Recover the amino acids of this structure.
């Protein structure tokens, strides 16, 4: 039982509730930037901390580097006092520090907490009494308690008494027009009851509905369940796609028919693999942690096997289709349509399109891509292609041996592609019916 310093707690709670608190957003990417805009919009002073000087420089002149976030919104935030910086000394000015940094997997598909831990350690020298730290990065149950708590307390702060610690998983869905930061309910778990109270105060003005839970572990597990639910169901439908393909059945027609049932069925759609910052990664955070308890999460891992095998299956379909035309993959000119991880965004994180490009290149194909949302292949930690997006014209399409539809952006001219591509491999079910130059994969 932690004896709460009621004066410190009351002072912070009052500042948060009266919008007098200074909010520090640590990590200004797809999660942190929308959250910063929300706090700035409702009247809080916000400091944004990031180690990437180019991001800070862009924000400082009111420029957005994320396609679906308008630069005008950045400029408005600046006019309201938003301050972007790479100087972590600014953390001492903040009453709340919200961590929105990556939690990828390492090459052994184990959790990589280096960004979270390095960020925490960079903040600790500048932390003080009366602050709340909220971790939003997806991670395994126990991370907040086992990793952040001891580091903060080693700095001389007593969590639950003089400082406060919560876990509140991000739920951003980049490019989804039906939801925004404020309308997505926010799960909040505190290390202590006092921490939970502070966490609710931190988010209650920014988010329409705050959902308190009993601990940081419950909040961490909630995030994993949400994304494992999706990963398992996508794995199921990807396996169904392979079976349906062998039987000559269009899986998309089957799914659309099943979706007419008004109860007991939720439509999930197959693709060339899993992408994004959550679904390809989060299940492995739980499977890794479960081993500590002597458990083998067979169901989750089976779905992972199916999903990670989809790019190879797509390439096999492409190879067979080229063979039917008397061509080999080696030396073939192949255009990959869409390299963002989902349609209508510029987000490249864990995009299966990149793996498809690498598989094709390893087989000797001459790979190009077209993506109206990603005009130049970006710098990525583990992948590199020195390519710019190919403009789609009748002439350019006719110059490729194969067009691989990997991400079905709405603003592709699908009629133009159908008319002028010699061979189309459709991994998204965009084309309906039968076409002489179409293979569904």
């Amino acid at each position: 039982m932690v004896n709460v310093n009621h004066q410190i707690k009351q002072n912070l709670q009052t500042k948060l509730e009266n919008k007098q608190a200074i909010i520090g957003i640590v990590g200004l990417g797809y999660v942190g930037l929308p959250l910063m805009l929300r706090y700035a919009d409702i009247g809080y002073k916000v400091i944004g901390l990031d180690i990437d000087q180019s991001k800070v420089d862009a924000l400082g002149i009111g420029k957005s580097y994320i396609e679906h976030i308008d630069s005008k919104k950045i400029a408005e935030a600046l006019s309201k006092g938003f301050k972007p910086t790479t100087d972590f000394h600014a953390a001492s000015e903040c009453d709340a520090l919200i961590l929105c940094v990556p939690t990828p997997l390492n090459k052994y598909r184990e959790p990589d907490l280096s960004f979270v831990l390095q960020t925490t350690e960079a903040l600790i020298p500048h932390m003080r009494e009366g602050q709340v730290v909220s971790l939003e990065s997806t991670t395994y149950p126990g991370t907040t308690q086992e990793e952040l708590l001891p580091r903060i307390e080693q700095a001389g702060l007593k969590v639950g008494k003089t400082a406060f610690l919560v876990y509140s998983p991000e739920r951003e869905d980049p490019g989804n027009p039906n939801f925004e930061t404020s309308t997505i309910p926010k799960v909040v778990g505190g290390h202590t009851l006092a921490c939970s109270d502070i966490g609710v105060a931190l988010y209650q003005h920014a988010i329409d509905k705050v959902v308190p839970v009993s601990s940081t572990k419950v909040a961490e597990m909630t995030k994993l369940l949400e994304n494992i639910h999706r990963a398992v169901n996508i794995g199921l439908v990807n396996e169904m796609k392979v079976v349906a393909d062998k039987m000559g059945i269009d899986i998309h027609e089957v799914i659309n028919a099943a979706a007419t049932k008004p109860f007991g069925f939720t439509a999930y759609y197959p693709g060339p693999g899993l992408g994004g910052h959550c679904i390809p990664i989060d299940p492995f955070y739980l499977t890794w942690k479960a081993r500590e308890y002597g458990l083998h999460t067979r169901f989750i891992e089976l779905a992972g096997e199916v999903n990670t095998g989809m790019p190879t299956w797509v390439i096999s379909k492409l190879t067979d289709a080229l063979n039917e035309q008397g061509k080999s993959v080696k030396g073939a000119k192949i255009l990959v349509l869409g390299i963002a991880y989902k349609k209508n965004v510029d987000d490249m994180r864990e995009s299966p399109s990149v793996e498809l490009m690498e598989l094709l290149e390893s087989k000797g194909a001459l790979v190009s891509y077209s993506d109206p949302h990603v005009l130049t292949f970006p710098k990525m930690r583990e992948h590199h292609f020195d390519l710019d997006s190919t403009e789609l014209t009748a002439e350019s399409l006719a110059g490729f041996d194969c067009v691989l539809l990997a991400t079905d952006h709405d603003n592709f001219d699908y009629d133009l592609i159908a008319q002028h591509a010699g061979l189309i491999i459709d991994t998204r079910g965009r084309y309906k019916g039968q076409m002489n130059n179409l293979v569904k994969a």
